[in-house]
Amino acid sequence: MDIDTLLSYEWGVMAPEFIILGVATLLSLLDLFMGKDKDRKPLAWVGIAGIIAAIAFTVSFIGNDVTSILFDTFRLDSFSIAFKLVLLVGAGLVLLLAMNYEPNDGLEHRGEFYYLFLTALLGSMIMTSSSDLITLFVGLELLSISSYVLAGLRKRNKLSNESAMKYVINGSISTAIFLFGVSYVYGLAGTTNIREIFLVLSTPADSQYIYLMAIALFMMFVGLSFKIAAAPFHMWAPDVYQGAPTPVTAFLSVVSKTAGFVIILRLIITLFVQAPSGDGEAPYLLFHLQDYLAILAGVTMIIGNTIALRQRNIKRLMAYSSIAHAGYLLVAFVTFSYFMMDAIWFYLVAYLFMNLGFFAILQVITQKSGSEDISQFAGLYKRSPVTAVALGVFILSLAGIPGTAGFIGKLKIFIGAFITDPAHYVLASVMIATTVISYFYYFGILTQMFFRPATDDSKVKLPAGVLAVVIIAVLGTVGFGIFPGVAFEFIQQFGNFADFIR
After folding, report:
1. Predicted confidence band at 388 (pLDDT cuts at 50, 70, 90)?
2. Distance CA 93, CA 473 (A)
């Protein structure tokens, strides 16, 4: 590739990625040359400034035509813009949490956290724009490897060490399974370009290739199910959520999960949307395997919500809650309704606000008490009424109570299960039943907050960064719950939200 070819590319479409890469590099150099006794918290402001700049460039791309560079390995389309905004906003809020994170055993390598966090964000952003299996895998591993290190950042904490080890082992296994499926796809298509693979798989040269395509789809979906903590591949999530530093747990529950669904939508839908099944009743492979994917979604909702009932550790409880929410999102994916993309995007936005708001208050309470038991929320309303009300808003949204963004997100997915032909009555029924089950453990936290006597009468004071996250999260949770049309009108600006297939 000569210099003229390099200069001919529209490198501006990668401006958000270049900004995050540059800031991560800058933070690593600043951390290297700062004295050991220097406070690393100011590095977070540099990271936040970089994220804001990346958001500004991403917003400026709205309404632009689809742009492809580097031999169609990187695409800027409506899909990538929409999900990059979710990732960047979530990352900015997590950095605000990390600034005020002070565990009892200390955090010696705070500088490492900031630039490792940005490299993980960079990997997820690359995934949203990947139009080639190689660049997509590079983004996936950049996210995964950075996450492994972040989970074990508290090196003197045994639970953190355990979480990192389990995360590495399970993540490596899932990657191997995923690559096994990818190898079949490459063998069938003879190319790594996603759109070229789509054309080849849509009209296979031999009907026997259908079985190989089914194996590839199955292995890839199993590997990605680990990434989003879908049952029965969820076993790593509770231990990792419990042992990882709280900002990392918040990152894994929101940003990492969003990236997981990005790769499922970008890869699975694109490659197999028109792959034939050889069955006249269900002509396409995805629809032929729809019942199996529905079982996976149902099992995920059931396991996540039922096991959460027995949890006393609040971070483990939120891990199983996250598994359940992955099941709700899988319902939208399985039904393949015409507004599937809108429903998944909106639900991830709602989940971002309500989950990060919850973890912001959880971080303060667990740091103050030194315990992660659910009883630490007892009497919170008497100690800090405003904090308790804010936390109540997040819990109600997680439970899907009307007036919150969580309710609108679930309602959109629920309606999508009925508008398809045939309608998914069983899956919708499981979604309703498991949502009702979730009320027991979500309302158990509310019971502790409003009806149990406090063991400690001291006030709960939210640091400035945490307070900013809580305010933004409350506004997002309540605002999108009362005025969901604002979000959906924003989505409509992207035009064809599924243009990543073209």
Report:
1. very high
2. 9
Inter-helix orientation angle 158-189/194-202, to 10°: 50
Structure tokens at 495: 């035009």
Confidence of residue 26 (pLDDT cuts 50, 70, 90): very high
Closest CA to 84 of 237, 320, 337, 255: 255
Q: Which candidate, 89, 107, 4, 26, places its Cα nearest to that of 52?
A: 89
**Ramachandran class of 226: left when φ > 0, alpha when ψ lies in -120 to 50, beta otherwise:** alpha
Of 171, 359, 129, give the one whose Cα is nearest residue 251. 359
The pLDDT confidence band at residue 34, using thresholds 50, 70 and 90, is confident
With bands split at pLDDT 50, 70 and 90, how would you rate the model's confidence at 25?
very high
User: What one-letter code names the amino acid at 490?
Assistant: F
Q: What is the mean pLDDT of residues 62-87?
A: 86
- Exposure string for 216-251, b = 16+ CB within 10 A, e = fewer: bbbbbbbbbbbbbbbbebbebbbbbbbbbbbbbbbb
In angstroms, the CA 272 to CA 217 distance is 8
Amino acid sitting at position 477: T
SS3 helix, strand, coil % of the chain, rounded to 5? 75, 5, 25
Mean pLDDT of 411-420: 88
Q: Give the model's pLDDT for residue 199.
A: 86
Contact 338, 345 (CB under 8 A): no
Give alpha helix (H) positions in 401-502.
405-416, 425-451, 464-482, 484-492
Q: What is the per-residue pLDDT for 407?
A: 94
- Residue labelled with tokens 């309540």: 478
pLDDT for 409 equals: 93
> What's the chain's average pLDDT?
87
Residue ranges of alpha helices (H) inside 61-193 are: 78-99, 110-129, 133-151, 158-189
Structural tokens at position 128: 């949203």
Q: Classify strands 74-76 and 67-69 as parallel, antiparallel or unpaired.
A: antiparallel
Q: How far apart are the first and last CA of the chain?
A: 26
CA–CA distance from 441 to each of 304, 389, 412, 438, 477 (Å)?
Answer: 11, 17, 23, 6, 20
- 3-state class of 224 per DSSP? helix
CA distance 238 to 166: 10
Cis peptide bond upstream of 232, omega within 30: yes
381/146 Cα distance (integer angstroms): 38
* pLDDT value of residue 493: 67
Query: Is 370 buried (19+), middle (13-18) or exposed (0-12) by CB count in 10 A?
Result: exposed
The continuous run of DSSP H or E covering 76 comes out as strand 74-76
Judge whether residue 404 has pLDDT over 90: yes
Is residue 78 scored above 60 in pLDDT?
yes
